[in-house]
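Worked example (supplementary).
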Amino acid sequence: MKKRFSPKKNYEKTRSEIGYVTRKKATPADYKRIGFKSGLEVHQQLKTKKKLFCHCPAGIYNDHDEYNAEIIRHMRPTLSELGEYDGTALMEYKTRKQIIYRIKNQTACTYDIDDTPPFLINKEALEIALEISLLSGLNIVGEVHITRKQYLDGSIPTGFQRTAILGVEGEIQLKNKKVRLIQLSIEEDSCREVSDIRHTRIFKTDRLGMPLIETVTYPDMETPDELREAAEYIRFLNRSTGKVRIGIGAGREDVNVSCRGGSRVEIKGVSHNKWIPELSHNEAFRQFALLHIRKLLKERVANGKNRSIRSSKIDPRDLGLENEHIQKAYNENFEIYAVNLPYFKGILSHFTQPGKIFADEITTRLKVIACIEKPNMIHTEMLEDHINKKDLEKICGILEPKEDDAQIVFWGPKEDIPTALETIEERCQMAFDGVPNETRKSFPDGTTIFKRVLPGANRMYPDTDSAPIPLKTDYIETLRKNIPQTVAERFRQMKSWGIPEDTYHYLLSKNLAPMIEQISGKFGFEPKFLGVFWGHTFKNIEGKMPQHKNFSYNKIYGLFKFIHNEKLQPSIAKRMLPVIYEHPDMEFSSVLISINFRKKSMNELLAPVDFLYEKFKEIRISGNDKNTINWLMGQVYRQAAGNVEMKNLKKEIEKIVHNP
Amino acid sequence: MAEDIFQGYKGAALGVLRKFNVRVWGQTLIDTTRGKFTGTVLPRSENDDDRHIVLKIPTGYNIGIDIDTINNMKETGYQKANYKIPEKEFPYSDHLPNVKLFGTGGTIASRLDYRTGAVIPAFSPGELYGAVPELADICNLTTEKLFAIFSENMGPAQYITLAKAIGKEIRNGIDGIIISHGTDTLHHTAAALSFMIQNQPIPIILTGSQRSSDRPSSDAALNLMHAVYAAGHGDIAETLVCMFGPTSDEYGFLHRGTRVRKMHSSYRSTFRTIGDIPVATVKRDEIKLIKENYNPRRKDRKVNILPYFSEKVTMLYYYPDMKAEILDSLIDMGYKGVVIVGTGLGHVNKEIYPALERAAKKGVSIYMTLQTIWGYVHMFVYDTGRDMMAKGVVPAGNMLPEVTFIKLGWALGQTEDPVEVKKIMLSPVNDEITEREPYNGYLVYQGGVPEVEDFVKKFRK
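After joint prediction of all chains, the assembly is encoded as:
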């Protein structure tokens, strides 16, 4: 007797066939085996007062339902400068989306909604972007040409993003390798999505038009760890200017991944660098899985004649189908179709990502392209929630499938059926070609789903509303003189200071090295002490306590100035910090009072030690000197902190203990 | 003439291209003091400087290279772009009305022009069908390019050519006419055609776009669909302007050609009916009447074409302390008609009065209109107004200044006799002067007021 086909077992079998390993278990050899290749597009908002092409304030955000008016737009594909249509544009057009923009008067003007041509580019933004271009070692262009980059998903009301290249061909130095940069552009940020249901997509325009830069690397990264390192490096580099925005969404990465024989797939808008390794790992293996699927399909077709996909409209009442999803679809007046996919048995449940199978690629495309909300289909290889045998027989009675076929039943409003059928057929056809070029959306669990077709270079068009901006060599050289040290130089510097390595990430991400340099240079405190102060003490406080709105790093600079002027020991800063963090407007002398600090000389501090020593002798349980010294130090520590160096105090106490 | 292989380059930049033997559309490797650059040399706009060479780099972006930084250039290939909207033959369906589209230029049908770096008009039915295939579901479309000019270059000669061409089409049996037109002077042309084409049996619809059709969010396609629907299926046999109602892609207005005005430099919803309400709203497949009175479509082929225009007509926008010599010099130059755009209810300063008298004596027709745009000229309210009327100034009622100008040119094209001119001017052809101004004919709501904000939030403006 023939064994019943188990989708779950097939999922597990195909997972092991492609040699999937988890991220934790993966070794560089695994990445070599699948030919992992990856590049980055790092987006970074610039800290400017106003937006890039209009005079609206930048960086003021509002809630979804906080708006003054709504605007509707429909997008149509247009030709690129070179006379071609872009694939993404045509896909988006297929979706027939109605785009609604929610506008708040405070943050959006007639430029944002494309009812006014652009104003001159924000000079402040351009200058910051140029500084970062120089820091990235890029060849700076002679003239900036604003270009329109088509986006038909509605994320920008004009249907294009105004963007311009500032530099090409640079490089950054990671720990063990150099990574080449393709280019750096300045551009306007897009709208934030509120919702996307059926044929209506809603955006809000608060973030729209804010100045943003995009640094693009070559696909030089060969492991997920390298990828993360490059992402961190570029983020630190951007922050080292002190002129970029930080916080949620201020820096976002698009991660381009492929495996050997695969295609470039872009994972869009990853806002945490720590997610990058897992996402890129899974994507590379997803591509590896798709290549395996291609191999299986080609083998099957080689043995038989290629048969085309067949579909049939079905009436679940007539057929007496019991499936819950189908009944629900029927009750919502959807049209229901059964589709036969020749050769797809064992493919629909083929592993693609952890917990995901090939059928998921189809259901997401139905949602994105045909705009049919999930669940929009069931199929013969579901991991859970199987179609029962009776239903399956009835459906197969209509489709008359062959042994190695698989079946889908999908549903949707009548007007979306043609696009849906086209979409299913298209995706199945693509399986014979391997990995489709896609933009994918990421999830925190490390998996991704289809977002849209990957756009190419065929979506560029010169911005006829803006004149080119010349960049004179004198101007570039003046800027070059003022740029900060590179991140690689900062690493070396921190090492030479002897700062513990576990603080590097924090210090670079907050751009604190210049601050350490400044405090140390001005007041003569040890950079090593300051590094630990910021990287351990400050970070710890920051993680624990709410920050007062008036607090800024400059308060800490002021604190060390005070300690220097009052000739106190720098260690007192650790005790003062929590108070200052919470009450930044308090005078430093009052802070000292609040922590019960009194100025005392070494002799004053040592005065009670003899008495304490005698007392300790009464209560101690062993005669160990070390314990004694520690206990005595503990007794006078709080009074001593800030007055004398601890190691000196210890020496004095040791003298008393050793030579009574 | 040989093809220009250095399109748009001049002076020093041209010299550099010649020196290194690199053509426009040549794929090039450039070695500069700022590093190496690769890409395709693009044409340069003639108005831009001669210090830079434009390059399309492999990622599709354009950049400029400062010629002073160039050490060496080398052409490694050649690939010319072919910017062409895919042309497809416009399909014909028996059951759909026949609509003729006259092209005059303007942003509704335009594409990139490397010479100026701006957009230029471009147009053919095949292109239109390629770009807006939905048109084929609405009508059978034929097109004729009459001119390819920006709307600011439209004038009397073009009005006359248009009127005659439309007359011919009507007699040949067309079901509707649309005219694609730049928006800046769309309302001037609409007024001119309202006077030159009278008693027509079919709709004549003027349309354009505020965002050029090379942009994904252009209003061109929707305006075109609305206009074609109104021309082919609509019952309003008048000269109408069809443009966006709200700035959203929702519906269009059909404005009477004699009462419409462009009111914002860049908004999509820039055209408004002034001192009255629009005739109708239009969607891709529906017209909703707002006004009850209009000239309905007829089966016959009768139409009066009155293609007259005198160019001896001018406009004078009044400003405080205007000197009489301004008006005098216009009269001396031989102008036969002057439309004054006066303040308030229709006033100018006393200093001009003698010049008004001199003009009247020379048989010049002078009409008073309003800077306030809305409202009627009321010259009886103050003595000064009565004085002016005594000196021969004719109040133009609530006729819009631009419409008065067009009508006066049209009237003077028929007669220079001020009495005859006045008869023509004050007999409305199609509501250019209305007897009454409805309360909702003037609605300029002020933002910031809670109830207005409430309204704006609920309904798209």
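Two points are worth noting when inspecting this output. Residues 156-171 of chain B form the longest helix (16 residues). Chain B touches chain A through 63 residues (CB under 8 Å).
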